[in-house]
Design goal:
Elements lengths: L13 E2 L1 H8 L1 H10 L6 H11 L6 E4 L2 E11 L4 E18 L6 E10 L7 H18 L5 E6 L4 E6 L2 H20 L17 H4 L5 H18 L1
Parallel strand pairs: 1-4, 5-6
Antiparallel strand pairs: 2-3, 3-4, 4-5, 6-7
Helix pairs in contact: 1-2, 1-4, 1-5, 4-5
Length: 226
């Protein structure tokens, strides 16, 4: 897949977190994108509070490494913008200089997640997107990062393989296409729905005939706005 898109300068960037949302549930991502809906439950509230401890926009020196928290990043080519929970910068004479310290450094992004340890591909895709943003900004290569599970205090390394990068580019394109099409993705009920904060807005158990009628109303409203 060609890792570029047309009209990069004028395209609307979507939040990095939508990669994880889309991987978890495409319907959930479409609700966020089309209707700007966000509702909290006990799970999202716990995650937000835990992330609040990380998102302080500070830098820390730990030995020779520099830890940069809440680092803003974006990629016009990928079409995303957002923040890295933490970027570790380790001294490496073959990499790049940064404004946070002397010498040259190799980046190692770390994404913080709450709850139980889960090997979820969408987490890896979100982390890989962060690496692509950093690579684009600093003209460097980032071979790996990590997912840190706050409750378990466990850190799992993620290698940014060619396959993972390809999936990240493909998902970014699918989300961009979704935004441009303004087509709401149909709901499909599953076990994930039980803990979803958007369950009431999504109504995954609504009969398809009723949902189709609502979708038609939405399509008509979109046409009137065009």
């Amino acid at each position: 897949m060609t890792q570029s898109f047309s009209d990069e300068e004028s395209r609307e960037l979507f939040p990095l977190s939508w990669l994880s949302q889309y991987g978890y549930c495409k319907r959930r991502c479409s609700l966020l994108a089309m209707e700007q809906i966000w509702q909290e439950n006990e799970y999202t509230a716990a995650g937000r509070l835990q992330h609040k401890r990380v998102h302080t926009g500070r830098t820390e020196q730990r030995g020779e490494a520099i830890h940069i928290f809440e680092m803003p990043v974006f990629s016009r080519r990928l079409g995303v913008s957002g923040f890295c929970d933490c970027v570790e910068a380790h001294p490496s004479p073959s990499c790049v200089p940064i404004p946070y310290g002397e010498g040259k450094y190799e980046f190692f992004p770390v994404e913080y997640k709450h709850g139980v340890v889960r090997d979820e591909e969408e987490y890896h895709l979100q982390l890989c997107a962060q690496a692509i943003c950093l690579e684009e900004r600093f003209d460097t290569q980032i071979p790996a990062g990590a997912i840190f599970f706050i409750d378990a205090h466990r850190r799992d390394e993620v290698l940014f393989s060619g396959e993972l990068r390809e999936k990240t580019w493909q998902m970014a394109k699918e989300i961009t296409d979704l935004i441009e099409s303004q087509k709401m993705i149909p709901a499909v009920y599953s076990a994930k729905c039980k803990k979803c904060s958007l369950r009431d807005a999504c109504q995954p158990r609504t009969k398809r005939s009723s949902r189709s009628y609502n979708d038609c109303l939405w399509d008509e409203a979109v046409k009137e706005m065009e």
